[in-house]
Fold:
Amino acid sequence: MNVAILGYGTVGSAVCEALIQNKELIKARCGKELKPVVALAITPKPNALVPVVQDIEEIIKREDIDIFVELMGGVNKPFAIISKLLKQGKAVVSANKAMLAYHRYELEEFAKNAFFGYEASVAGGIPIIKILKEGLSANQILGIEGILNGTSNFILSSMNEKNCSFDEALKQAQNLGYAEADPSFDIKGIDAAHKLLILASLAYGLRHKPEDILIQGIHEISSEDMYFAREFDFTIKLLGIARAQNGKVELRVHPAMLDKNRLLAKVNGVMNAINIKGDMLEDSLYYGAGAGGKATASAVISDLMDCARARSKTSMLGFERQIPYTLVSQDEIYTKYYLRLKVEDKIGVLSKITQLMSENQISIDSFLQKPKSKVDHSTLFFTTHHTYEKSIQTLLNTLEKQDFIKAKPFMMRIQS
Amino acid sequence: MNVAILGYGTVGSAVCEALIQNKELIKARCGKELKPVVALAITPKPNALVPVVQDIEEIIKREDIDIFVELMGGVNKPFAIISKLLKQGKAVVSANKAMLAYHRYELEEFAKNAFFGYEASVAGGIPIIKILKEGLSANQILGIEGILNGTSNFILSSMNEKNCSFDEALKQAQNLGYAEADPSFDIKGIDAAHKLLILASLAYGLRHKPEDILIQGIHEISSEDMYFAREFDFTIKLLGIARAQNGKVELRVHPAMLDKNRLLAKVNGVMNAINIKGDMLEDSLYYGAGAGGKATASAVISDLMDCARARSKTSMLGFERQIPYTLVSQDEIYTKYYLRLKVEDKIGVLSKITQLMSENQISIDSFLQKPKSKVDHSTLFFTTHHTYEKSIQTLLNTLEKQDFIKAKPFMMRIQS
Structure:
């Protein structure tokens, strides 16, 4: 299937790159090759991975394009283009949340006879559209609480962790490329509101526009508010909130004090997370990158693959054919380890143990000897640097045979 | 579409109940009514919501059943039944992870011409099958780390939080119904291994069986290990782990020391969580209930709806028709609030503020006065009990007009 990329910026180039780099995997999973054949860009892109043209008409009139990926931004122009394509029965994938916040129900009409995917429009690194539309489809959605804007979350995290002012945190975000020169859409809650409205359609079928809901930004939050939050065990987060009761739904975007012990409160930096409460499964939470070229491209391509699969038959386990993975043998597992040893309390024991470790190429990362209790042996705790499972197993077998070992040595792996 | 429930226990009855209770919602979302028409149970169920029979042949031979839900447990018997049904082209949904751990590739063959759903087989409250199969399908899966067994996680959480022994924690889990009389499958890591193998098929197409992978249970973990973990900032979790590099995959189930600051380490009690690292979206994490009648039923019904949708056309936003939700007006929002006020430092100010609050039916939850700095006003912080947005807005408007207020009052909502 031939893919046209309308907009060759960070996301567009990441889509092309991944389609090329993960070509075999994608083909193995969905049974079709997805080939980027042309891209649209206003300025020339000398290093582009596909031919780049500057006139959109040149792409739209081509008969050999199977799917169009819209990454242009804006509202009215992309809406006009996508509407036209869908009416012609062409498949379209878009990451454009602003356009969806205003035109999603018109697009739904046009998409009745054509594929339209928009997984990338909310939290690129979390397949939240599919989760709400399909995974949780049996549930009455009682509530949604989402950290939907990475820029705001980065600023709030910085203010909290580094005790800096809003302006300092914003400047830092801009320096790191997390905030744009004009950060209004992010810090004033507009971007989060666009995303909340898309989720609200999936959960409740609400057709409202950004003007209809409560939106408060984070730009008025001061260090003093941060001070208070800390004193009272809160964390401040910009949340998109939906809450349903008796057929009525609250929709709002605003900074909120959140119990610092909630999982959602522990989501820091540019990450996104969405907590959904359903009548059947109670709380579930989804956490991942909110933006960035690769994460957004991941969502765009999952839509392309959905489109491809709809035209073929999806295999039950997601692969149309076997790909060349093999299982690592247990001996080859390579990780850090934790050991607990009960030993006789006598001279030379620690020296012997460390010698055995060294003989097995095992290097100690930390060591703790617990004060001896009334019973007649000591407990030693070790953690190791990375080593092979085979080495640890050999060490354990050797240790067990030593007369100073008073109980079967115990080992656990450390997940780093 | 008529649904037969093979196995009317906790999950089976929850499926029936939800199909009846959320009938309209389900129909609105997938365009079909899903009607439970018969259930299988060994013993009579006098309060069952559907007719219950004891002979499976009586159900299987019926011509009016569109989907069969297998909730019997076991391996060989359900495999034989499901194989037969799929070969006849009948749609089947199953929650049976043990059967899938052994027979998933045979089932995939049989399911080439019939629908087979198994979302409920891993972490009922997290649509992880769909996430891996479709949402993250563009990614090379670099790693999976999953808390896949609620019983073990409950025991480890208890040992950590209450400083109790493994035996005490297990007994408590049994008393609360979180562990079975024979808890071997859960505490020895077998159940987690079954689930990991299913995920490994989705991520890598690996056909291995439980015998092929490393499995260590939690039954040997002592209070001393917990002591160590705390001293060294670890949390102990039973993890199902997959790690891929250069086409090779590690698969293992074992208790692991995990940096206590990782999100995964903060997942306590019977909850499940799965961290997935993809080459494109880096880390994402999915958190939800692992088991329980309703959460598992939620997954079963999402499969039933997928089946129903495959026979109709899914609307872009997940609803075939509008359902009667309306938007709550902003005035009606009902939550707790946080206020920051800059006031002149003089007698009677606090009294006046609290009087205004009281006049607006706003009740104070907490109050903090920050020591006065060099500048000539004090800062007051309030949190309120639940109240209406309209009341707070009225209060703010009134406060702004007071001469003792030295800066625009600031308000945030508290998410409780």
About this structure: The CA atoms of residues 125 and 345 of chain B lie 53 Å apart.
